[in-house]
Design brief:
The protein is mostly beta strands. Strands 2, 4, 5, 6, 9, 10 and 11 form a 7-stranded mixed beta sheet that branches. The radius of gyration is 14 Å and the shape is globular.
Length: 116
Amino acid sequence: QVQLVESGGGLVQPGGSLRLSCATSRSIFSIYAMGWYRQAPGKQRELVAGFTTGSNTVYGDSVKGRFTISRDNAKYTVYLRMNNLKPEDTAVYYCHAEAAGRRGYWGQGTQVTVSS
């Protein structure tokens, strides 16, 4: 079974930091491109950060300079470091895996709430 397991979400204050993790398998990690999306209530799901080709990355405009995506190949894990969090960052964050010619996969999501 394909499994993407997110963790690290929670309640943080504005200006705080949080690191999300997405644990997957060797089979997925070696073939699929990994990324992070988020969805706030009443809004469409949007790209937060992702790997394109090789180690190149892409970020959503609203998180550039604040969020950083990284990965640990030995642990088959993708991370999202979130700094200077804002209330508008509040959303469910989803790990995503995609590959050409294949269906995509989503994690179950982890809630991030930024509030005083």
